[in-house]
Amino acid sequence: MEYETPLFFHVMEYADRAETDVIDMVSGNPDWEPPEALRTGLHEFADADPGRFQYPPSDGLVELRAEIADRRGVDIDQVVITNGAGEANYLAMARAMERNRGSEILLTEPVYPYYPGKTTMLGGTQRFVPTDETGQLDPADVRAAASDETAAIVVNSPNNPTGAVYPEETVRELVAIADAYDAILISDEVYDHFDLSGQFSSALGVDSDHRIVTNSFSKSLAITGFRVGYAIFPPELVANARSRHMLVNVAGSRPAQYAVLHALRETDPDYYRRNRELLRERVETFTDALDAAGAAYTTPQGAFYVMARFEGYPGTLANIEQLIDEIGVAGMPGDAFGDSRSDWLRFALVTPRVEEAAERLAQYFD
Ligand SMILES: Cc1ncc(COP(=O)(O)O)c(C=O)c1O
């Protein structure tokens, strides 16, 4: 059996190989600085005693787990440090599947493509619940799709790729549906620091033994290459997840966790606010330029992405490659996120050159 692997790395490599100047808006790799304390922590670690270069505890540095537990208002035993939110989502989905309460996983459409990939890899079946044109999810549709076969409902807010931020009522309802069907709500909150709407609501705010929250420092500290994330499990579900994490990874990376801990302790909230404001300005600049080009687009309430649609130019891989070759603008094909967005292209606002990119697009489609 062959697994479906998401297209991100393919498009990034294609853009890298291009001989022309390419504005890279493919993937959610922040182009801004990590906090100063992240670098200091890493420098400090380099000079540590060699004993500190050996295995950390499998489920992560105790001080880091304690820091997260404290910030999130949960018990330290519920926290497992993972290899990014990628592994956190995998552990959560695997944990939901092994409860043997069904093998169907409810996903939204459009979807972050790693979720259907993981579903298939775990032997589950996918069922998609459509979101509206702004990316909002109607809990009534989720309830209608849920059944005794539902093992998990996987949601992501602020959302990649739509930019939707789910209001508190939606999150509350999603947890209630998981409770009612003895399924697990998996809430991927990696963009929680990039809520431009002020509406973000964490699933941790709704008490339940049927929800797992996943997160990471990839985006909030601008370190997608460090691979530090975490999952917060209900107490009864954590043991197996911890074992799976150990069997797959042995442990995570100690230097990366050390630097993250240092950064969490020393970084002022202003760091996060500045990055959010930077993103807000880029959204405005990029969408203003798309407006001028007469393109349709989404205005994100959060996360890093704007979707744009140009008449007669669907969001296929071939079209994305053509834009890289002809105008040096690299995005992602909308159809990578599901059929509902196959007319759209997704652009990650992780470059200072968003205006130039929009101008190149405007000129090309003029
Ligand atoms: C919705 C979502 N979840 C998870 C991830 C992966 O995060 P990490 O780098 O922490 O594995 C991403 C990365 O873009 C994402 O957009």
From TrEMBL:
InterPro entries, sorted: Aminotransferase_I/II_large, AspAT/PAT-like, NHTrfase_class1_PyrdxlP-BS, PyrdxlP-dep_Trfase, PyrdxlP-dep_Trfase_major
Pfam families from the UniProt entry: Aminotran_1_2 (PF00155)
Keywords from the UniProt entry: Aminotransferase, Pyridoxal phosphate, Transferase
Segments forming domain Aminotransferase class I/classII large: 20-360
Keyword check for Cell membrane: no
GO molecular function: pyridoxal phosphate binding; transaminase activity
GO biological process, one term: amino acid metabolic process
CDD domains: AAT_like
Cofactor(s) listed: pyridoxal 5'-phosphate
Oligomeric form and interacting partners: Homodimer.
Protein family according to the UniProt entry: Belongs to the class-I pyridoxal-phosphate-dependent aminotransferase family.
Name of the protein this chain belongs to: Aminotransferase
